[in-house]
Design brief:
Layout lengths: L2 H23 L4 E2 L6 E2 L6 H17 L4 H28 L5 H16 L4 H39 L1 H18 L14 H14 L2 H7 L5 H6 L14 E7 L5 H4 L1 H20 L3 E8 L7 H10 L6 H7 L7 H7 L3 E5 L10 H4 L3 E3 L1 H4 L13 H11 L9 E6 L28 H8 L9 H20 L6 E7 L5 H4 L6 E8 L2 H9 L3 E2 L13 H10 L7 H8 L4
Helix pairs in contact: 1-5, 2-5, 2-6, 3-5, 5-6, 11-19, 17-19, 21-22, 22-23
Length: about 550
């Protein structure tokens, strides 16, 4: 062999080895927190080892890969790459593992949200770019696997060094799967177990036996439904109840030093507004069933009194006729309202919820400037609802469920607060300069914290001013954070706790909540007093006439932590 041939041979071998290193890196990368990007990782991927073994077997058997076999290898490798990406980025961004059963159903919703900020041609361009990216990634992987099959595999099969290195890689991968701790710095987290968990999850979702075991036999709502007429909500005395879910308001607003400092003025102003209205507030932390998203889990969990931290339990519940707070209040003579400013699509779940009146975005008639992804500011929604459905003395008492939306990802732009509440309902609710300045704000996907804190400040501002508005008749307000914001705001390892505020003029009613662990004022005890679905039983205990079941009787059903 001439020197030129030797050089050419060594060049091919070097390219083949670099190809193997690159292919391994495609299955071993790690997250680049707090971004959706990734960084290379030196560790060995178990899936790369198994694909390499399969490639060696195919080359030893056939001598070369057919175009069909090459496509199959490439497709399998691409699936593993996508699985790896989801496995490392979803926990980093959302604080929870990937869940195809839940996340798959929300992908269209996410895409719809993202598309609202762009013109149709921009959205089409993004779709085309994504398709091109996938096609390019497939072609790149196909070319690299072809090099590995043509050059690397034959070299490994005919040399002792190739067999030694392959055997060592197999031993490391097997030892890692067996739980050998010394392999952890050397072997990346495998992807296949994540896929297997998704298969198990989907299989369980369609198993009738599993579905029957998912839901508890009874809840605090069930107990209240069987109470004597007038006893279940006797302590309310026919007063209105507003259950307001505060989008993305989580414990980070209390736990993070920067957030505490930023929000202190607005939080103090809110407390002043509450006091000026003749009301008092008590506060506690509860543990949400979800993190960074999945508000439905928190909302329906609270309405039903059922732990919905398992998304399957949520979807199974929707197929039943189990009672909720909506059912209970309706049975007690209340008119029930669902106030959903974010709802802009067909919502099959409305049949389960069963509100007497459901107000969606189109029902609110907002004609002002579109405030970001969710268009309608929460201040307008609150004012508009009172305009459309005034609290006349002759009307029945009302139960209002209001999931706010303005403080939703991506937390920008923050709407201006309108001091004149009558003007917020006008076609031009804000000054032109104010509007231009607001709409000039663009989401900062890499640093969301400043935008998020502005949104929380806005939430405290409009809520406090709302309590200062004339109140035709007395109401009880339950303000509940639905979940923590995205993990790039909270940081890694954050709790799933959310604040809950009870606002009322009735000091005796608030005393009932204090007995259950709430604290007067806006500052909650740091230890969460239960899961969010436990709040359902606590509310019903506080709302009930004295002759009904005690908290000690309800606690086992709701998971109340004393």
């Amino acid at each position: 062999m001439t020197s030129a041939e030797q050089l050419k041979n060594w060049r091919r071998i070097s390219i083949a080895l670099l190809t193997l290193v690159f292919l391994n890196g495609m299955l071993s990368f790690r997250d680049w927190w707090p971004t959706p990007g990734v960084l290379p990782d030196h560790r060995l991927s178990p899936e790369f080892v198994w694909i390499w073994m399969a490639l060696l077997a195919a080359v030893a058997w056939r001598g070369a890969l057919s175009p069909r076999s090459l496509n199959l290898f490439t497709f399998a490798f691409l699936l593993l790459v996508l699985g790896r990406y989801a496995d490392v980025t979803v926990p980093s961004l959302f604080g929870r593992p990937i869940n195809l059963y839940w996340d798959g159903a929300n992908i269209p919703r996410f895409l719809w949200v993202a598309a609202q900020e762009n013109a149709w041609w921009q959205s089409a361009g993004i779709v085309a770019l994504v398709v091109l990216l996938f096609w390019g990634l497939f072609r790149l992987l196909r070319a690299l696997i072809a090099i590995a099959a043509r050059d690397a595999a034959p070299y490994a099969l005919r040399t002792r060094w190739g067999w030694v290195m392959t055997s060592l890689a197999v031993l490391l991968a097997v030892a890692n799967q067996a739980g050998a701790s010394f392999t952890w710095p050397l072997v990346a987290k495998p992807v296949i177990p994540s896929y297997w968990r998704q298969v198990q999850l989907l299989a369980a979702a369609f198993s009738p036996q599993h579905q029957a075991a998912l839901l508890p036999a009874t809840t605090a709502v069930d107990a209240a439904m069987t109470a004597k007429s007038g006893n279940a909500l006797g302590a309310l005395g026919g007063r209105d109840v507003y259950l307001i879910m505060l989008e993305s308001v989580g414990a980070v607003t209390y736990d993070d030093a920067r957030a505490v400092q930023t929000l202190r003025p607005s939080r103090e102003r809110f407390a002043t507004d509450v006091a000026a209205s003749g009301r008092h507030v008590v506060t506690a932390f509860f543990r949400s069933p979800t993190f960074a998203g999945g508000s439905d889990l928190a909302q329906l969990g609270l309405l039903s009194g059922i732990d919905l931290s398992d998304p399957m339990r949520h979807d199974v519940l929707l197929t039943t006729q189990r009672p909720t707070l909506i059912s209970l209040f309706k049975a007690q003579g209340y008119q029930t309202f669902g106030l959903y400013p974010a709802l802009n699509w067909e919502w099959p779940e409305r049949a389960f919820y069963g509100f007497d009146v459901l107000l969606e975005r189109r029902d609110l008639g907002y004609t002002g400037p579109s405030m970001g992804f969710w268009e309608v500011p929460d201040q307008f929604t609150a004012a508009r609802f009172e305009k459309i459905h005034p609290r006349d003395n002759g009307a029945p008492p009302r139960f209002v469920f209001f999931p706010t939306i303005t403080c939703h990802l991506p937390y920008s732009p923050a709407p201006p607060y309108q001091t004149e509440w009558s003007r917020v309902l006008a076609p031009q609710p804000f000054d032109e300069a104010e509007t231009r300045q607001t709409l000039a704000q663009k989401p900062n996907w890499l640093n969301m914290a400043p935008d998020y804190l502005r949104m929380v400040n806005y939430t405290y501002q409009w809520l406090g001013a709302y309590f200062r508005q004339p109140e035709p008749r007395e109401a009880i307000y339950v303000l509940v954070g639905d979940h923590q914001p995205a993990a790039n705001i909270t940081g890694e390892g954050a709790s799933w706790d959310v604040p809950v505020h009870i606002v009322s003029r009735d000091s005796q009613l608030l005393a009932r909540f204090i007995e259950q662990g709430f604290q007067p004022g806006m500052e909650p005890p740091r230890q969460a007093i239960g899961a969010l679905h436990a709040l359902t039983g606590m509310m019903l205990e506080s709302f009930a006439a004295p002759a009904t079941q005690s908290l000690a009787q309800l606690a086992p059903l709701t998971g109340v932590v004393r």
